Amino acid sequence: MNAIVPVPKPLFSYKKHWAARLGTAPFLPMSRREMDELGWDACDIIIVTGDAYVDHPSFGMAIIGRLLEAQGFRVGMIAQPDWTSAEPFKALGCPKLFFGITAGNMDSMVNHYTADRRIRRDDHYTAGGLAGRRPDRAVTVYAHRCREAYKDTPIILGGIEASLRRIAQYDHWTEKVRRSVLVDAKADLLIFGNAERALVEVAHLVARGIHPSAIDNVRGIAVIRKTPPEGWSEIDASDIDSTEEGARISNQQSYVRLPSFEQVSADPETYARASRVLHRESNPGNARPLIQRHGDREVWLTPPPIPLETPEMDAVYDLPYARAPHPLYQGEKIPAWEMIRFSVTIMRGCFGGCSFCSITEHEGRIIQSRSEESILNEVARIRDRTDGFTGIISDIGGPTANMYRMACKDKKTEAMCRRPACVYPDICKNLNTSHESLIQLYRKVRATPGIKKVMVASGVRYDLAVESPAYIKELVTHHVGGYLKIAPEHTEAGPLSKMMKPGIGSYDRFKKLFDAAVRDAGKKYFLIPYFIAAHPGTTDEDMMNLALWLKRNNYRADQVQTFLPSPMSLSAAMYHSDINPLRPVRRGVSEPVQTAKGLKQRRLHKAFLRYHDPENWPMLREALKRMGRADLIGPAKHQLIPGIRPSVIGGMGRASAPLKRGEGQRFTTKGVRNRVK
Length: 677
Fold this sequence. Notes:
Elements: H1 32-38, E1 45-49, E2 54-55, H2 60-70, E3 75-79, E4 98-102, H3 108-112, H4 138-149, E5 155-157, H5 159-164, E6 169-171, E7 176-178, H6 181-185, E8 189-191, H7 196-207, E9 221-225, E10 233-236, H8 243-249, E11 254-257, H9 261-266, H10 268-280, E12 290-294, E13 297-301, H11 310-317, E14 324-325, H12 335-340, E15 343-345, E16 347-348, H13 359-363, E17 368-369, H14 372-385, E18 392-393, E19 395-397, H15 411-416, H16 436-446, E20 453-454, H17 462-465, H18 469-478, E21 483-489, H19 493-499, H20 504-521, E22 526-533, H21 540-552, E23 555-557, E24 561-562, H22 570-577, H23 599-609, H24 617-626, E25 665-667, E26 672-673
Parallel strand pairs: 1-3, 1-4, 4-5, 5-8, 10-11, 11-12, 15-19, 18-20, 21-22, 22-24, 23-25
Antiparallel strand pairs: 2-14, 6-7, 8-9, 9-13, 12-13, 16-17, 25-26
Helix pairs in contact: 10-22, 18-20, 21-23
């Protein structure tokens, strides 16, 4: 079958809505007073968001708002409304076209709770960093309140929470499979992934009088139907791995029927099959529509959106953002804004395909890059218009630091591919891994007048970086500030194979090149490797071996990450089903996955990562004895933990104790102390 990728209508080629004559707003209005000052009698579209409103392209609601404004629509913003009544949702009146609802830059449940379901004490997307300014399951709650406020006004869902919950999905916080959020929210339409193309097309259709619930042929949407569209053939999800079935339907207009909500709720193995199919149908070049029954209704999902071309990306990031929080906040600090105010996004997407991560699922695996000119213009705007700028760009990157302008060497091959990752189990031979464009970009940004330093804070994909020693040298010489974050996630083959991460050998090769570059540059820099505890496929022995590796390499982690089953991820499917959806899922032959689910075992896995903390020694002693590894208990260098808790704790002791020279290194998320060899 020859995949045919449709050519989308250019993002900025639509005839503008009549309100374009009113010009642009300094900030999208959050009050009637601001609307009056702009000469508006009403908003065409009102965005309701769970984040504080920061008019900056690192915040999704700002991109969407400014993009719709550029299309000629009057766009208002209701940020973090009190959801206990419908009144705050009436603050801007009734929108002429629709409410657009997003939970914000994070899923609200991930925002509120840790992996162990403990309530987080802060919220980086809220003024003052205060927690509790958005509800659990914000998209659903906001939609219900909008419906109460204006019963007949259309409601469109978007953002990462809606995107990752567009089909029936396992929910870690209730330990159940939940319905599509489109059904629970009783909304008219859901837009998933990067929403620019779909939202612009939908907005113009609604402006022409078409109700959102009647739109079913725009890419990147989900809508509720009574029956599948006519003229399509159906493929059952259970046949998706069958070569014979694939050949039989290859030349037909077909959609894939996922197991129903009722089926995936009742049977974890069926859930794993649905997850596998969803992820196989994620390439815009060959993905087919999906359909999933919920009771007597069908949730119809069109194929993913076509990625933006570079000129379109440039135009999106060149929109007239105020590049600051709304004046309503009166200068109160918003932690996420403080973190990104001097940073530049240069690309979107990730072809890493890590099974626990939401980036590929939401943004896609095709890299969308901005031009050098657009990036340099934004650097100049930061220099000239952002208060407090001292000449240091805090980050230049994106979902990863070093995938800028990387792509498949052949567009036809790219359009046909169903691999979930371009770099696992090995880097695909068809992938262009050149870092030359990124190196040249770094140099041009550094050469910009008024720029003193350019940092790279986005995570470096080290298995790609080793393909370019010149990139590592450039990075170390000019763009590292004491330490560099990378994420091997584990050392053992079992969990790494379930994460779709490279073996620890890739890390070793990167570290060797990194250390050589550090010596050549005459610097004292070092790596901060991040690891995950309790990921599906991880045994107690795997965590023990990781702890031993950490000790041998003199690493002591102050803060560690326990696996959190994020909605719709492949890892969440493993966690829920104890089955590996990376391989064919068929009754009786599915590959089982060992998963740490109980709180005691999850805490043990986390304790192995913090083997140096005396608070964890009793738990670790008990576990090592049970595992038949009591030989690792004692004071010797090769042993993991002491036999008894000493009365005075030194070098190997309490996490806050200073390290003696040569004893190793500690790292935290806030910084690094002491030295690296």
